[in-house]
Amino acid sequence: MYHVGNDKRKIESAHLLLDSLFQLSKQKPFAMITISDLHRISGISRSTFYRLFDQPLDILAYQCDIIMEDIIQLQESNGDYFTFLTIMAHKWYENAKLLELIVWSQSIDLLYHSFAKYESEILTFIKIDSQDEVLASYIFYILVSSLLGTLQAWMKHDKKEKPEELLSIMARTFKLFEPYKKTNEEIGL
To answer: How many Cβ atoms from other residues are within 10 Å of residue 97's Cβ?
Structure first.
C-alpha cells in the first residue's frame, strides 16, 4: 500500500524512488531489490520510504494509479470508448519503461487493480448499462484482459508498434469474433 497523497515533497520522493527502482532493475532481479538499495541510490531515508510505501512493489502500484488517473481525466472530457483506448495506448507508450518493470517483476496484477478502481467510469465510457451488474462485470474484465494482453504482447515484440498500430491490432482481433455473433435465440438462451 502507498501513502503519498498530494504533498509535493512526498510526490518528489516517490519519483526519486521510482527512478532508483529503474536503475536497480538493471543490476538485479526485482525480488532482490531492498529498501536499503533504494535508500542508497535515491538518498531517500528508510523512514521516509516507510511513510510513503510498505514495500518496493508499492512504488509500481502508485505509478500505475497515477497513470490511470491521468487516462480517466483525459477521457472524461472526450467521451467514447475508442478515445479511451487511444488515450490509454498513448499513455502506456509514454510510460513503456514502467510497463517493462511491471512485466519484468511479474506484477501485471497491479494494472488490473488500477483498472478496477475505475470500473464504473470505464463502463460509462463504453456505454454499458450497469443495470445488469453481472454482464457489465464480464464485459469490463474481458476488455481489461484484452488491453493488458495487448500491452504484454507489445512488450514481447520489443515495443515496435506505435499506439495507432496497437489499436489497429486490437480492432482486427475483435473482428475475428464477428462470425461467431449469434442471438440468444440462435444459441438456445
So the answer is: 12
Q: Mean pLDDT throughout 110-137? A: 82
Closest by Cα among 112, 109, 75, 107 to 91? 75
* Alpha carbon distance 50, 46 (integer Å): 6
d(CA 55, CA 32): 12
Please give the Cα distance from 48 to 35 (Å, whole number): 11
Residue carrying the nine cell digits 511479474: 106
User: What is the distance between the alpha carbons of residues 86 and 163, in angstroms, rounded to a whole number?
Assistant: 7
pLDDT surpassing 80 at residue 81: no
Closest by CA position to 63, among listed 33, 31, 105:
105
Cell of 55: 514495500
At 183, the amino acid letter reads T
Provide the 10 A C-beta neighbour count for residue 15. Answer: 16
**What pLDDT, on the 0 to 100 scale, is given for residue 142?**
87
Rounded distance between C-alpha atoms, residue 20 and residue 53, angstroms: 14
Cα 158 to its chain centre, rounded Å, is 18
Which three-class secondary structure state does DSSP give residue 79? coil
Helix (H/G/I), strand (E/B), else coil: 2: strand
